[in-house]
Amino acid sequence: MAFFSVIIPLYNKANFIESALKSVLGQTFSDFEIIIVEDCSTDNSFEVASKINNPKIRIIRHEKNNGLSASRNTGIENSTSKYLCFLDADDVWLPNYLAKIYALIQQFPDARLFATNYVEQYENKSVLPASSLIGFEKDGIVPDFFASNLYQHIYCCCSLCADKEVFEKIGLYDEGVTFGEDVDFNIRANSVFQLAYSKEAPVLVNVFSENQITNSRLSNKKLVDLDKYEGLAAKNPSLKKYLDTNRYVLAKFFILENDTANARKMIAGIAAKNLNFTQKTLLKLPVPIVKLIRKVKVFFVKNGIRFTSFGSI
Question: Model pTM?
Answer without folding.
Answer: 0.93
